[in-house]
Amino acid sequence: MTVQQKPSSAAYPASESPTKPASDKRREIRYPTNDQAEVRMLPSSGEHLAATIVDISKSGLRLELGSTLLKGSRVEITTSPRKLIIFGEVRYCRRVGGIFNAGILIEGVVAPAGDSEAHLLDDEIALFVIGKGLAVPEVLRAKHHISKCDACSRRMVDTSATLYPRRSKPAVS
Fold it and tell me: Which helix (H) or strand (E) holds 33?
């Protein structure tokens, strides 16, 4: 198992990150997902709550679930089918219609051994740059790997320049 602490800020250099709406005042880009997960309160009472991870950023994620979570509580989130375990703190939980939205500050991630060591595929980099199409474990793996691998980081910059030519800075002569 590989244990990662809070994701590095280098995972989303400003020029390579997915588009962020001008109206969004958040410090970090959110990557939309739709991954099923189980939430367990810590310390554990043994109860598991079904949830959906709606989006994820460098330091947090948003859950949709059928019951409320207490602000300040510690949680363990396991993605289906048990590929990744995310530890975090509940920052807020609000009722939205018949469901609850909970914001979780990511405190640590446990991934299968060797999961972040292999280089990213071109398709993974393209989907990461576009900002959609990857599941939560893939997003976290990509962020972690790009922050540590110069080759994949350069490939991400090249892919971003190809996909979004107007965002690229012209070469200075």
Answer: strand 31-42
Question: Cα separation of 74 and 14, whole Å?
Answer: 30
pTM above 0.85, yes or no: no
Whether 166 shows a pLDDT value over 90: the answer reads: no
CATH 3.40.1360.10 fits 2-19+30-163, yes or no: no
Q: Which of 41, 46, 50, 101 is nearest to 73 (CA)?
A: 41
| DSSP summary character for residue 169 | P
Residues 6+ apart with CB under 8 A from 87: 42, 74, 75, 76, 77, 106, 107, 108, 109, 110
Judged against a pLDDT cut of 70, whether residue 3 lies above it is answered with no
Q: Tell me the domain boundaries of the chain.
A: 2-19+30-163
Q: Which long-range contacts (CB under 8 A, 24 or more apart) does 15-21 make?
A: 15/157, 15/160, 15/167, 15/168, 15/169, 16/129, 16/156, 16/157, 16/160, 17/131, 18/128, 18/129, 18/130, 18/131, 18/132, 19/131
Q: What whole-number distance in Å separates Cα of residue 143 and Cα of residue 131?
A: 12
| pLDDT value at residue 171 | 57
